[in-house]
Each structure stands twice: as structure tokens, then as C-alpha cells.
Amino acid sequence: MSKRIDISDLNVYYGDFLAVQDVTMAIEPRAVTSLIGPSGCGKSTFLRTLNRMHEVIPGARVEGKAVMDGQDLYASDVDPVQVRRQVGMVFQRPNPFPTMSIADNVLAGVKLNNKRISKADAADLVEESLRGANLWNEVKDRLDRPGSSLSGGQQQRLCIARAIAVKPQVLLMDEPCSALDPISTLAIEDLISQLKDDYTIVIVTHNMQQAARVSDATAFFNIAGTGQPGRLVEMGDTATIFSSPTVAATEDYISGRFG
């Protein structure tokens, strides 16, 4: 089941540096929310707070709340590893484990979570996850080949299969198409549209057309002046944000006048 995430008064620090300031938003289930804005405005930092990935950087900390269906992700009794199991992540560049087979890549997260799984169940999960990532028909006859033998677009879909194999409720995607050609990008965008039936999806993208095509809601982040932290300028349904935003800075960014 996909989950709703409610963010309130979120501040993200790296040491003394405030990277994201005072973000409050609701991320709806079974929908795609895109985060747009100029480089350095905190989009990727904010994205990583949703599964506590930013904590791997020394000195990183969060103030405020991120609540997923009533569970505060930052409560003292919450295990960050459990959060990352519920909130999967797909990165900018495809990162399959190069020496592992395609099948073992799909199962990597499951095994990392110390789940014992029978051979038959593993085979079923590999097929189910690769079908979910629209990759099964392309690789079903070479599951024992290395993940690195695939094209860039296939590798990215393999990473999506790996993410959904652990049965998360939320999928985060940090510019998942920026390293891909247009045809591979289209395949990922089609896949995102299908996956939102089962997952809450949050995507960071620099591609305005992509945000307009794939997302139901769009959040515009900006830097509020020299050296200022990233702030959420406005958020709304994508059609409204792109056709009649309420803040001039949003319109300037979308139309390419700055950023």
C-alpha cells in the first residue's frame, strides 16, 4: 500500500549549514510529486530526508516532522534501516552491482535485509519485480548475465526492479533520467506512470517537460537570495503550477527566464 507523507516545518542541516528551510507539504499516495527548482536549492537534500539517506553524511540533521501515515519517521524509536525499507530510492545514474547477475541485482536489497527466501520464491520475486519495472521480456533469457551488461536505460529499470523487490510503499527518484537518452527516458516515464498505481512517487527533475508529463503535483524550490537555504516557494497540482502559478518566481523558472 502506498503511503501519504506529511512534512511540517522541516529544516535540514549539514553541520552549521542550513540547506533546506521551513518546508511544509503533503505528498499524496498513488500519485507522482515532482520537485523542481534551480541547482543548489535543496531538492535532492529534501528528497533524501524522506528515507533518512542524508544521515549517511556526517553532521547532517533534521528539525521538524516527516510523518508517514501517522508514523513520525524521525521518532527516537524508529530504525532508519526500516524507514529505507519502506521508502525506496533510485539514483541519478544507474548503479547496478556490476559483478552481480541481473537476478542477484534484483534480490540484493532483499538479501541485505537478511530475509531468508527459498529458490522458488526468489525466482518468483525476480520475475515479479522485473515485470513491475517493464524489463522482464528483455532480460528473461539472460538473468545470469551481469547487470552491467545491460544498456543504460535497462540498468536504470533494473535499479527500479531492485527497489520494488523489497516491497516499499514509497519510491524516491533523484533525476532518474538525466543520464539517459530520449528513448530510455520515455520508457522510464511510462514506467513511472504505471508504478503510481501502487506507490507514492517523488521525483526530482531539472526537465520541465518531464515534470509536466509525469507528475500529478509539482513543488517549486528556490534559493531565497545569495547564500540562503532552499525554500519551498509553492506547490500545487501540476497543471495549475505550469499554467497559472501564484508566485512570479515560479513562472520565471518554468518559462526559462532564470535558473
UniProtKB/TrEMBL annotation:
Gene Ontology process terms (BP): phosphate ion transmembrane transport
A Pfam family that the UniProt record links to this protein? ABC_tran
Listed PROSITE patterns = ABC_TRANSPORTER_1, ABC_TRANSPORTER_2
- Family annotation (InterPro entries): AAA+_ATPase, ABC_transporter-like_ATP-bd, ABC_transporter-like_CS, P-loop_NTPase, PstB-like
Transport in keyword set: yes
- Origin: domain of life: Bacteria
The record's keywords, sorted A to Z, are: ATP-binding, Nucleotide-binding, Translocase, Transport
Q: Which SMART domains match?
A: AAA
**One cellular component term from this protein's GO annotations in UniProt:** membrane
UniProt-listed CDD domains: ABC_PstB_phosphate_transporter (cd03260)
The residue ranges of the ABC transporter domain are 5-248
GO MF term (any one) = ATP hydrolysis activity
Q: What is this protein called?
A: Phosphate ABC transporter ATP-binding protein (PhoT family)
Which species is this UniProt entry from? Flavimobilis soli
